[in-house]
Amino acid sequence: MVFYKEKDGQAMKMVAPEAWKEDIALFKEKTDAFYAGELDKGAYKAFSGYYGSYAQKGGKASMLRLRMTAGRVTREKMEYTAKALRQYDIKRLHFTTCQTIQLHDLRPDQVYGIMEGALNAGIVTIGGGGDYPRNVMCSPLSGVEQDEFFDVLPWAQAAGEYLMSFIKAEKMPRKLKVGFSNSPKNLTHATFRDLGFAARADGLFDVYSAGGLGNNPRFGVKVAEAVQPEKILYYIKAMWLTFCAYGNYENRGKARTRYMQDALGGPENYAKAYREKLDEVFCGGEDLTIVAEPITFDKRGDGSTAQGRRVLKQKQDGLYTVQWHPIGGQPAPEEFCALSDALTEMPGVEMRLAPDETAYIINLTGNEARKVLELTKNSAGTLFENSVSCIGARICQVGLRDSQALLAACVEAARKADIPDKALPQIHISGCPSSCGTHQIGALGFRGGVKSVDKKPQPAFVLYVNGDERQGKESMGRELGTILETEIPAFLVELGTAVAKSGMDFDAWNAADPKGLEQIAERYLA
Question: Backbone phi, then psi, for 296, in 5-degree steps?
Fold first, then answer.
């Protein structure tokens, strides 16, 4: 495994893990000081994010983010994660919307051991938080999906390696999120990331920039069309230079790329500024052309077959993918470990993480797929149970509401009411405005808030409707109002019941009666 680091303006390769282990000694020193009460939580958060670790709410435990470039979890990386779960008796892990694996409720000594061991397994935590390039995202089924334009995974992995160089380069205003999509499904939100590469049918990329969810959400600006994949690093460096030149260093709340659209006078002016930096990169003499070797699998089907709601046929003849969605993106550690053990006996199989907290186990024969189905039988059973939730305020320092608890209550209510599959959509829940649960692009989204009852503030969530992530149909959810947390399960049951009575699924019902959703929600918003 190699990474890039800047030296005299040129890109050079260096080998991990040794290059990063020097950083861990300082992390230990500062973390020990924090837990000894010698460093306040604000100062520690500003420091620890560089290492992919934060103190959880209350300051009694830590989390650690395992960067899985492009959402790809090879068998070796999965084996290490399972080993760490067992060795350190970890009880909580989370598949995130940025295609990483978070480990929670950790003591400092556990964080140190896992962080060092992860490097040896090819998993880097450095830059997993803080104001650094984050995990590069990629369509989870890239390379095996039947209707994809082309396999973007090799290019996403190359981008991930290159972006490691900027972790030790000049500090950017705030974090940089890069995504690759292999089709208009746009699961990685490539058209509204800080930088996004959207595949085209002709094997080239369209490039989007300065988008993002959260406060003041923005769709990305198309800054380039028909880009050769071999040239993507030029566009990444241009993004970095644009951010360094025009990003807001004075106001942290506006230090994300999307604010540059307004700061520079609108999308057209932003695109012009970006292209000027792109010209500088192309004229600078640095050769950033890459050749990304395709990821090939020698495996072929053996004649066995599998079928079921969670089984997908791959474009490779006779091979299957199994979908696994632990509710809330939180698999039981023992289930994760058992699956990892089983995959060691299945050649060519690996796991891919998706931006909606789903995991896909790919390259399975029919017989293997049936085994994986059994091992993941606790997976979500309906579209609604495949809903998305951030880790929630019980754990997150900045979280306002416990999004995981809300999701659990809603799933339980829907099951008790026997709401049929597809009568409710996949919902997206964020505990705060940061949109870690991507509430702004869901058919239904909820964002943690407060509602006054008898002049007393009560836990509540703001309701968003009709968001859409699909390329060409992108839409930010419209804010309808605020619902008390305790009333959201009842609202969803009433909604699901109405849809079920119509004989249609939610999407068809919502399209046929655009006012129906608002009419049901109105009583809960009052």
Answer: -110, 150
Rama region for 53: left / alpha / beta (φ>0; ψ in -120 to 50; rest): beta
In total, the chain counts a number of residues equal to 526
For 228, 233, 259, 292, the CA distances from 289, given in Å and listed in that order, are 10, 7, 30, 10
Q: Are 55 and 48 in contact (CB under 8 A)?
A: yes
Q: Residue 23 — very low, low, confident or very high, per pLDDT cuts 50/70/90?
A: confident
How many alpha carbons fall within 13 Å on the CB side of residue 204?
Answer: 9
DSSP-derived pairing of the beta strands 311-313 and 320-324: antiparallel
Where helices occur in 417-515 by DSSP H, the ranges are 488-502, 506-512
**188: DSSP letter:** T
To the question of pTM greater than 0.90 for the whole model, the response is: yes
Q: Is 458 helix (H, G, I), strand (E, B) or coil?
A: strand
Strand partners, 479: 464
> CA-CA distance, 208 to 194, in Å (whole number)?
8
Assigned token pair, 438:
């991507």
Q: Give the torsion sign (CA, 324, 503, 407, 131).
A: positive
CB 476 within 8 A of CB 453: no
Instruction: Assign 336 to helix, strand or coil.
Output: helix
CA 405 – CA 390 distance, rounded (Å): 11
Q: Provide the pLDDT confidence category of residue 18 given band limits of 50, 70 and 90.
A: low
* Residue 9 pLDDT: 39
In one-letter notation, the amino acid at residue 18 is E
176: which DSSP letter? Answer: B
Q: How far is it, in rounded angstroms, from Cα 20 to Cα 38? A: 25
To 10 degrees, what angle do helices 267-283 and 232-246 make? 120
Residue 405 CB: number of other CB atoms within 10 A? 18
Does residue 99 register a pLDDT over 90? Answer: yes
Give the single-character DSSP code of 493. Answer: H
pLDDT tens-digit map of 349-399? 999 999 999 999 999 999 999 999 999 999 999 999 999 999 999 999 888
Which value, to the nearest 10 degrees, does the dihedral of the CA atoms of residues 11, 16, 19, 22 take?
150
Dihedral of CA atoms 235, 236, 241, 246 in degrees, nearest 10, equals 90
Distance CA(195)–CA(257), nearest Å, equals 9
Tokens 């334009």 appear where? 149
pLDDT one-digit tens code per residue, 25-60: 889 999 999 999 999 999 999 999 999 999 999 999
Report yes or no: 135 and 128 within 8 Å, Cβ to Cβ: yes
User: Residue 197 is inside which H or E element, if any?
Assistant: strand 195-199
Mean pLDDT rounded to a whole number for the chain: 94
